[in-house]
Design brief:
The structure is a single chain. The protein is an alpha/beta fold. It folds into two domains: 21-122, Nuclear Transport Factor 2, Chain: A (Roll); 134-285 and 351-436, Rossmann fold. Helix content is 35%, strand content 22%. The chain has 15 helices and twelve strands. The strands form two sheets. The protein has an eight-stranded mixed beta sheet, with helices on both faces. It has a four-stranded antiparallel beta sheet with strand order 1-2-3-4, with helices on one face. A hairpin with a 3-residue loop joins strand 1 and strand 2 (89-98). Helix 7 (226-242) packs across helix 9 (264-270) and helix 10 (288-301) runs antiparallel to helix 11. The longest helix has 18 residues, at 308-325. It is globular and about 65 Å long. It starts with 20 loop residues before the first helix and ends with a helix.
Length: 437
Amino acid sequence: MRLVSFIFFIAFSAAGHCLTVPESKRLAGDFIADLMREDYGKAAGYADDSIKDKLTAGVIEQVWKGILAESGKPQGHEEIQAALIPPDSYDTLAVLKFEKQLMSAKMRFNASGKLVGLFFIPKEQYTPPSYANPMRFTETEVVIGSGKWALPATLSLPKGKGKFPALVLVHGSGPNDRDESLGPNKPFRDLAQGLAAQGIAVLRYDKRTFAHGMSLTPDMLRSFTVKEETVDDAAAAVNFMRGRKEIDRSKVFVLGHSMGGSLIPRISSAAGGKCAGFIVFAGSTEPLEDAIVRQTAYLSALDGEITEEEKTAVEKAKADAARIKDPALSQDGPVIAGAAPAYWLDLRVYYPPDAAKKIGKPLLVLQGERDYNVTMTDFKNWKTALSSKNSVKFKSYPKLNHDFAEGKGPVTAEESLKAANVAGYVVDDIAGWIKAR
């Protein structure tokens, strides 16, 4: 599942070299290439000391030959996705091509670039939801902003004559693409196409840290905050939509998912009152450093057994949180949990529900009740702060996870690797709320 916690595209540490997302993708590609060549000895060399006795050349050979027997000859690999998993591990997901099927290979590297986790599963392909009727909309490639930070984007337009109400989609944490792709799932594509099929134009764009991550130097990141990461580009997207002839400029709305939902008050302020309303889509109210601790602990305890490595990860997350909360934290201090102090200091005085009280436009707050990234406690916090405002509506969904897809029981990290779309009734609720405005 997605982590609410902070994820930079470039991570670095004052204590020495720290693996970056691009480096983790390169390592994953090299590891896969060794498997494809059946060089099991070299592949085993990626294993961290903690798992060397489990991930031996013999074990890798046995697993790989089993995959070949089931899937046929290897034919290369496609995309490799990667993200920082707080506090300092890196998950990579690669699509492997075989004669008979596609496989997903999930690799976890630690900060030293050593493999600490590996598993293979048949890849489930993204399947558009039935509510995204392609006969009812068209899609156009566009660009948001200009110059160094211009962002590639997709505009989904209903067929027929405008002017249409419109929605801008704002990502959660991490270097997300315009679809918020994770494994076989693309929740922003589901939302965009489902809403366009119901007469609402939708804009989705690649996040700055996804499109321009390699341009963010350590010097830039030392002053980098959510303003540069999210808010500025969301405001630019609103201006873009208001300038399109197909759009009713008085009916442009913004949906923020996860951390994007947390930043809705700041986006509202940056957009200068130009929006018709806002949707908080599983928006966190918890301090980011606390969310990292809670999520790390949750994932560590899922299987009922906490390993020494997991204990260490939880303790490191707690230590990082304590450093972030330290009143003596200085702008010139060292990097903590992948971010410079400027990032943490900027968020220290920000409590989204209270900031949202100043929004003078309609607000819709939606929450999945099975979500562990953003919990029902967050939802309660939004209600406590805003329930007295007649312009705010709240709704939670018993079966839904962080991406508003259905499931049963406690959410596991592997759930995100199973193909699932945003529930159709959520799309209906959003469409109905926008049209009622």
